Each structure stands twice: as C-alpha cells, then as structure tokens.
C-alpha cells in the first residue's frame, strides 16, 4: 500500500500531493510513512550540505520528521516541500546551538577538573582558583603588589621596599591592578552564565 502511494504521488499531480498531506494531517500512519520515504533522502542531503556531520544526521532527520508530524496541521497552503525545508533548517540550527552548548559544558568541566587537580593543595574554593587564574593574567608589575598586600599582609611601605619603588607608585599600581582584576573576574562570571545559557 505504501509503495503504491509513493509511486502514485511521485507520478501524480499537486492535487494528489495535497491529498497525501491531508492524510498526514489526520495522523494516517501509512501516509506519514510514505512521506518519510519520499523526503528522507532530501532532508539527509540538505542536512549534510548545511554542515551536520554524518553521525548526527539520523538524529536531525528523525527530529525533523517528529516536528513535521506534530506541526502538519499548521500547514495550510503554499509549497509543502519549502515548508519541509524550513523545518529541516530550523532543526539543524537547533542542533548546532545544542552542540555548541554541550561543547562549552564539556570544556568547562575539563577546565574545572584540571584546575581542581592542579590547585587542590593551595585553594579551598573554586572562586579562589578563578581569582588565581585571573591574577596570573595580570602583568607582573600589577600582580606583585596585589599578592604582597592581600595574600602576604604587607603594608604599602613594605611593598615599596620589596619592589624598590615609591609608595605613590605602589598606590597607583594597586588602584589600577584592582580595576583590571575586577574586570577579568567579571568577564569570567559572564562566561559562566553563557556556559549554561
């Protein structure tokens, strides 16, 4: 029966295609299976050309047909093939967004594991590890005063003596370094939000 419908549709008119679509709207399983057999190669080819890698094409094709089945009642007029392409395109876009999100989560997990293993001896909280990473990104001239002041309880006089510079220079570099560090830390927090976005 399905083969008959396919052959009939492929060699038939627009009226016959509309009849098949009407059957799909009514959740006719045989008609839908025929539709899958007709459009599956088209969606596979389009997905591949759009950039979906072969291992994910079956998932994208399946999701496309799920949406076609669910939304068939919304198709009223126009070119049905174009409508299928639009759905396929949207599914592919969703796939890329999910893939990018998953890759970010994996990268974040790997980074946290690496940092945890690398700095477990020195830090108690993940925030301290992040702060340390941000500190390492600072130029040494800004990093040194901050470390001496906040982590070694040195006064401005002592820092000036250790670094062989004027107290006014220490104060200036402390002010600048705190602003730079704050921006770097905030940037990391924004990245944290995007990982889960």
Automatic annotation (TrEMBL):
It comes from the Bacteria. It comes from Ornithinibacillus halophilus. GO terms for molecular function: DNA binding; sigma factor activity. The lineage of its organism: Bacteria, Bacillati, Bacillota, Bacilli, Bacillales. Belongs to the sigma-70 factor family. ECF subfamily. Keywords: Sigma factor, Transcription, Transcription regulation. This is RNA polymerase, sigma subunit, SigY. PANTHER family: RNA POLYMERASE ECF-TYPE SIGMA FACTO, RNA POLYMERASE SIGMA FACTOR SIGV. Residues 129-178 form the RNA polymerase sigma factor 70 region 4 type domain. Residues 35-101 form the RNA polymerase sigma-70 region domain. One of its GO terms (biological process) is DNA-templated transcription initiation. InterPro entries: RNA_pol_sigma-70-like (IPR039425), RNA_pol_sigma-70_dom (IPR014284), RNA_pol_sigma70_r2 (IPR007627), RNA_pol_sigma70_r4_t2 (IPR013249), RNA_pol_sigma_r2 (IPR013325), RNA_pol_sigma_r3/r4-like (IPR013324), WH-like_DNA-bd_sf (IPR036388).
């Amino acid at each position: 029966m399905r083969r008959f419908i396919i052959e009939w549709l492929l060699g038939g008119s627009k009226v016959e295609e509309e009849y098949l679509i009407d059957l799909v709207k009514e959740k006719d399983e045989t008609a839908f299976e025929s539709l899958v057999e007709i459009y599956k190669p088209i969606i596979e080819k389009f997905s591949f050309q759009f950039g979906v890698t072969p291992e994910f094409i079956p998932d994208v094709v399946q999701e496309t047909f799920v949406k076609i089945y669910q939304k068939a009642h919304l198709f009223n007029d126009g070119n049905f093939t174009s409508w299928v392409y639009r759905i396929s395109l949207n599914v592919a876009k969703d796939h890329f967004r999910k893939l990018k999100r998953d890759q970010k989560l994996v990268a974040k997990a790997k980074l946290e594991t690496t940092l945890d293993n690398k700095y477990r001896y020195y830090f108690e909280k993940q925030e301290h590890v992040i702060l340390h990473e941000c500190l390492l990104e600072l130029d040494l001239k800004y990093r040194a005063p901050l470390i001496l002041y906040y982590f070694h309880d040195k006064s401005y006089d002592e820092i000036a003596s250790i670094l062989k510079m004027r107290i006014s220079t220490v104060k200036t570099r402390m002010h600048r370094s705190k602003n730079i560090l704050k921006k770097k830390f905030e940037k990391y927090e924004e990245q944290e939000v995007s990982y889960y976005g």
